[in-house]
Amino acid sequence: MQPIIHIVAGGPRTYIPDLSNYHSSEVIWVGVDFGVMYLIQNNIHPSLAFGDFDSVTKDQWEQLKQITNNIKKYKPEKDETDMELAFLWAINQNPRIIRIFGATGGRMDHFMANVMILTREESIGCTIEIIDKQNIISVFSPGRYTINKIDKRSYISFIPLSKHVEGITLLGFKYPLENKHIQMGSTLCISNELIEETGTFSFTSGILMMIRSED
User: Fold this and answer.
1) pLDDT tens digits for the chain (215 residues)?
2) What residue stretches are annotated with the Thiamin pyrophosphokinase thiamin-binding domain (predicted)?
3) Is the dihedral of CA 58, 14, 101, 207 positive or negative?
4) Which of 59, 63, 97, 162 makes the best surface tag, with the fewest CB within 10 Å?
């Protein structure tokens, strides 16, 4: 059975939703640097911990070692970020879905790097979401997708991450589109909403980011 993997990074706590809402016996929880302490503080046992752990105290490090012996510790001087290392491990597990928490807010360079990880070639074919209290971020390759209306995060935006995204069609939306071409930097597809219980979006080329948001 394909696993469900939840990765918790060390972003500002104020952006992290209640992790207990995403907990179940089938979830593999992975802590990234200080994110592992968020898991411990929420009484969630981390299956793995990744990072250089330069953001945890000596006492927290000793606590972590008592809770799990599956710790992948790296030197601070390395080519990949802690998140990238955890993400690549997760992808190699052939998961059903990867959800990432604690990856927004705080340093903008970290946030942008976390979002761009979703565009990696290895990500194609896997459902991956970055989730915080207001947003769900996901990235798509060309195809046709169905989404359901939800009470929260009712605003739906589509942002091109490639130079061009071609053939965008939106059905069941307040502002529908048919076979529209947009380029990077376009705000045409910001703040749309579903008017049906389900809607579809499709496109023929490019990389497209979807953000579901609430005020």
Assistant:
1) 899 999 999 999 999 999 999 999 899 999 999 899 899 999 999 999 998 888 888 888 888 888 887 888 888 778 788 899 999 999 999 999 999 999 999 899 999 999 999 998 888 888 999 999 999 999 999 999 999 998 788 999 999 999 999 999 999 999 999 999 999 999 999 999 999 999 999 999 999 999 999 98
2) 143-209
3) negative
4) 59
C-alpha 176/C-alpha 164 separation (Å) is 19
AA identity, residue 178: E
CATH architecture, domain defined by 4-133: 3-Layer(aba) Sandwich (3.40)
- Angstrom CA distances, 78 to 1, 35, 52, 215, stand at 33, 19, 9, 38
